[in-house]
Amino acid sequence: MRLLVILIAIFITQGLKAQTSDFFSGKAVQNVCQNVIKENRPGVYISQYPQFVQGTESLFYMQRSQGKYVVNMILLSQPDEAIELFSFKNKIHDILLHGHSLWVLTNETLQEWDLHSGKFVTLSNTHFNKRSPSNRNYAHAMAAHKNLIYIAHGGQGLHTFDIQQKTLLKTYDLGLANQPGGHYSKAIAISIEGNSAIIGVDNITAPQEDTKPFNGLIKFNLSDPNLHVKNSYNRKTAGVLAYAYLKINGGTVHINNLGLYHSISVNELNKGMPIKPKTHPIYETVDGMRQLVELSGDILIEDQRIYACGTIYKNNDKGTSKQLGKVVVY
């Protein structure tokens, strides 16, 4: 019955062109954002940050719910209702739409699901190792270009997967392992526009007085993988990159960096110099008070506007903080 509903809904929305704003004004996304932070017990909150991917007629999202990782679909014709497609016990790091397939990324696997039939298609490993990778080498995020999926695979760097052949092709370590001073870093985010992939890198080891692990953005040339440029975050003026989500749109890299909205031109990443992305504080007025909004989870960009979920910390009359989830359009 669920599959029939999905197929009928897809049929009646064919020919419509979805805008991100259409979905983020609906009740379904509002519910997603309200659930990004849940009070587990008094004063103790757990995060349930979503992943988004938008098609021409629908918005797909993944969000943890009641101990499971659930993939849902919102139709352009029904922006107030979310349709559950499937759920997983194991952690989902990212979802990707390519053709009529939805790809699901876990710690070390890619799963393909056919959206026409609603059925599982194939399961593939994202690494060549015989053993499961360690925590620092888990897959984190993915993006597609033509018939390849590029996977930000933690300390193992960048992995490429052939969509048609269902085969892992090459890996690029990006110099993240065995850095001077014995440092390690990990690829945690990726976005592609044109012939460039921008990869977000967090450090694993802590900086020392004389040596520091790489932390920042890598511009990766898809035509010539040997041409990649490392741009470290300027620790003194920009801090560090951590728990990041990023998207390229119109030559600008938009970043949710630990709740803060950063942006930087792709052209600035050709220099291989320390960078200071522009910070965009986002505020909302709550009960007459101007409150800073922290971005919570994945972001979408449309017409140079950011669409995401956010969290506001609101102090109650007892002096304790209550966290509220909401839709953010900036």
Structure description:
- This protein has helices at residues 2-13, 20-24, 27-34, and strands spanning 37-41, 44-47, 51-54, 58-65, 68-75, 78-88, 94-98, 101-105, 109-114, 119-125, 141-145, 148-152, 158-162, 167-172, 185-193, 196-203, 216-221, 228-232, 245-249, 252-257, 260-265, 278-280, 283-286, 289-302, 305-315, 321-329.
- The chain has a domain at 117-280: Kelch-type beta propeller (Neuraminidase, 6 Propeller), CATH 2.120.10.80.
- Strand 7 and strand 8 (101-105) form a beta hairpin.
- The chain contains three helices and 26 strands.
- It is mainly β.
- The chain starts with a helix and ends with a strand.
- The strands form seven sheets. A four-stranded antiparallel beta sheet has the order 3-4-5-6. It has a four-stranded antiparallel beta sheet with strand order 7-8-9-10, with no helix packed on it.
- The protein is 8% helix and 52% strand.
Give the key terms.
single chain; 330 residues; mainly beta; Neuraminidase; four-stranded antiparallel β-sheet; 8% helix; globular; disordered N terminus
Mean pLDDT, as a whole number?
90
Strand fraction: over 45%
- Shape annotation: globular
Continuous helix count? 3
Output the CATH class name of the domain at 117-280: Mainly Beta
CATH architecture annotation name of the domain at 117-280: 6 Propeller
